[in-house]
Description:
The chain is of the alpha+beta class. The chain is built from 12 helices and 27 strands. Strands 1, 2, 3, 4, 5, 6, 7, 8, 11, 12 and 13 form an 11-stranded mixed sheet that branches. Strands 18, 20, 22, 23, 25 and 26 form a 6-stranded mixed sheet that branches. A 4-stranded antiparallel sheet has the order 14-15-16-17, with helices on one face. Helix 4 (159-173) packs parallel to helix 6 (208-234). The N and C termini lie far apart (50 Å).
Amino acid sequence: MTDRPNIVYVLTDDQGYGDTGFSGNPWIKTPNLDHLWSESVAFTDFHTGPTCAPTRASLMTGRYHNSTGVWHTIGGRSLLRKDEVTIASALRRQGYKTGIFGKWHLGDCYPYRPQDRGFDEAIVHGGGGIGQTPDYWGNDYFDDTYFDMGKPRPFKGYCTDVFFNLGMEFMERNRDRPFFCYIPTNAPHSPLQIEEEYVRPYRAQMTEERARFYGMIARIDENMGKLRAYLKESGLADNTILIFMTDNGSADGCKTDASGFVTEGYNMGMRGRKGSEYEGGHHTPFLLHWPQGGFNTHVVVNELTASIDLMPTLLDLCGLNDDDSVRYAAKCDGKSLLPLMKGENAGWPDRMVVTDSQRLVNPVKWKSSCTMLGKWRLINGRELYNLADDPEQRWDISGDHRDLAAQMRKGYEDWWEKVSVQFDEDIPISIGADGIKVTVLTSHDIRGSDTDCAWNQGQVRQGMVCRSYWEIFAEKDGEYHFETRRWPAEENRPIREGIPGEIVDWWTGGKTLDIQKAELLVDGEIWQTCKVNDADLYSEFTQTLKKGNHHISAYFTDANGIVRNAYYVYVKYKSS
Length: 576
């Protein structure tokens, strides 16, 4: 044991505030989370981004996600800028052992991988979810292959169990030194894969989709119970900061109409769900339990707080006040929540906080934005709501509070000026870096929005038509070898060949594509073209590049003249 506290941080994916027993949900059973709620500081007005990667960027850095280059979940804008300092890096500098087990979603290639961003150990799936394009081919939540410090490694069992078990093994190995164990589950993110025994208790009460979603959450709750039992039995519980939170609003715990009002299911009366600028899109639970620090009884914090506050809070709780830590905290957009946890509310500022959901190639001012001040919410710069009187956000009262609306618009304008400084800059994936033998570019990260990128393996199987480029940085002058593929190397299947079976989900079948030609483009110009034959597993190119930023495209053209991206490109540095 050490004087400095350990940190165990559990972050679930697409589980909303209302998808818990402690929120008053009349159907879901989460006894272990409910117990943790009763023994924790509970932040009841805590806000994240409305989708996955943006939230993770602000949690890891203490900065607004737009500033970090992360305003989408795909399209090359889920990559955390390489000059950003993460909480893992800050803790490791101070002697913490750091590990992540589960979902990273801030970059799968150097220099964006978790092992490049402060983690000593990293076992993660690819992309934003199991079965997405960067993930190991064919993963389906059961007996999957994950990337252990970048290398494929098979595991037995259901994904949630695997990630929690890996986390506990990490804690046991490092019990005699301070550690930061980050367990970001991919569950209950779709596809909704879970054994029948977890679905059965809910099926008669609701739709099949919601029953499966709740079953995945029940599995998380079960693992939370095992985690807490391990911490107690190992003697680590007293001096471990245990955090539970979710990354955005509910994905499948409720249905909403076109205006975001809930028509089915439960969402604590909030308007909107995952992706929404309304409260249900970004108002999430945040529980913190630390017996040795005095935080092991139920304390409610009602002040406005946000994901940008996590990093400065952890630096403060761990007593890290060296020059580096002070500098990192000063760079954060958030504030330490320790005063609120101790009941010292008097000096807490009446601050403005902004969240938004861009999901575009380039951000658009005011788009899907929520500016928050106390219980006031300014939506998209136009609609104004007071949650104290109108928690469901049904009545726009901007006309009755013009001065306040103007003040909040000014707050957003100041925020936009700050976060938009680097919007036009590339966020390139490196090729040819020392120690990196092969860089695998996938269509998940080609520049674009949802309709431009084949971001999941089901779209690859369907042969989705998408055309764009990768932002890359050639680390040195010289020749680079490119293999452009329709299927990933582990599938080892010719470009033209399909996969037998009907395409009914992300992991069966695959269309035959009569590919005739492959092309490699550098900075918008066609540099090389080659014919594709029946037996070709990939098309092969060698290209000389100067050190620096480039835009690389790899296209296949079929017999009908349809041009689509190569979904996988393997790049090696050859020689100078």
